[in-house]
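Notes from the pairing session

We agreed to fold both candidates in a single pass and log them together. This is the raw record for the first candidate, unedited. Please don't reformat it; downstream parsing expects exactly this layout.

Candidate A
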Amino acid sequence: MEIYPAVDILDGRCVQLVQGKREQATVYGDPAAWAQKWLDEGADALHVINLDGAFGTATRNADLIRELIRETEVTVELGGGIRSVEDAAGWLAIGVARVILGTLAVRSPGAVRTIADEFGSDRVMAGVDARGGQVVIEGWEEAAGDYLTWAKTFETLGAGSLLFTNVDVEGLQQGIALEPVKRLIEATDLPVVASGGVSSAADVRALRDAGVSGAVLGSALYAGKITLPDALEAAHAP
């Protein structure tokens, strides 16, 4: 199971939000410095989100993210503000391992197939951000339907993996909600990366045992509730 430290970028700074709310941002500083810290501690992949893009300003932070990708030279999955096939293609062309399609995948499902056909399914991750079992888009402001139904649709369209973010527990540092993850894994054959609430090595082990392919560490990692070495050990232990 892979561990993805999150590097969420807002106004050029590394931040962590609570429940996706911009006004509840904790600022941590230089994104590149944090990315390097996680790599030094053993990460071999990063989960990078352009929060300004998610909130509607797709071009903001673009130069910073390009530089981060060039400097780290590790697997980077990128989301936030990818609103067109051209946006996705541009990021994939400069070395992003896979793009996370959230609002675009829901608004224009055919874009998933188009990008998968051109670049390969393994480079397309469909975002299943759910609150109360409903997919939420547009910065988690708008409900768009049952999360399991959307997951199956994304699989049919050619996505190579799913990012499941449980908005109900995201950023609260109070642990995961395992049942929605299990239901998703049962509903699809795609690899699932889980995000939201991962706050302890026990959470990582529970996700590993449930069958997820990866877990994103965010608020609890930055707050020191869980360390990256402990998470890696839990993910890879027999």
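Candidate B (folded immediately after A)
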Amino acid sequence: MRFRFFIIDDDPSSRKMLHNAIEYEDLGDIVGEAEDGFGAEPSILMKKCDIILIDLLMPKQDGIETIERLREMGYEGKFIMISQVEHKDMVAEAYSKGVEYFIHKPINRIEVLSVIKKVMEHIKLERSLQGIRYTLSFLDMSSQQVEAGRRERSSRSFTRSVLADFGIVGESGSRDLVSLIEYLLKKYGKERLRDFSALKDVFTEYVTDTQAEDVQREVKAMEQRIRRAVARALQNLASLGLEDYSNPKFELYASKYFDFADVRQKMREIEQEEEVSRVRLNVKKFIFTLYLETKEHA
């Protein structure tokens, strides 16, 4: 995925610094520049820009006016505002018009790269969620119909719908989770379990039941696939929380499927772009919650 950038700033040195930072880090392609918002709109729309870095104060048409005009013309990309103005009312107005972040002048290269990367991650997450929504819309069902029909579906369909909400339905570990939950429902469906035994024992029982040739090897592989899927679910959920803390999915799943402290830790790691995670995944809680919810809705 190559991102397309457009820079609007009446200061040539600022445009050059932004251009160099994006180009040096190979964040994407700079498809255009302008010294004022006035007249730049057609070029932006034609070049299908993903991210616009735009100055707040410009002589002919300021940043907020430009954003308004672009939104009216159907532009759906992201804006990063560049400004040395710190007036609360102007900043609030900019956020209300769809600005993702501010870069403060004088421009700091580290801040520029940090902000751009965060916006890029948000775009990736949005596109991933759009893919899920498209899959659901392909079935010609509204979100209300999906929610209403969820109670009537089979246990397998419900499990898949939850995994789709987490954005991991395409992960190989998700297929393991669907089959595992189906197996557990057949085995414990009539019992009121308060917890599972050790996960390794659960996996071993399941793999043995499938008559795999090398049980230990398949148990280890299955455990790794599921752990990767759960880690991706936590990553997607934390990113969703950063984007909108009041998002219904975030509120529904954050403390139910994970320890909320782990979700908060993952959110901090994403914000700070930490490469090594300190979160200790509670895979057992995720699977047990998925089992209980599927059992309730099946």
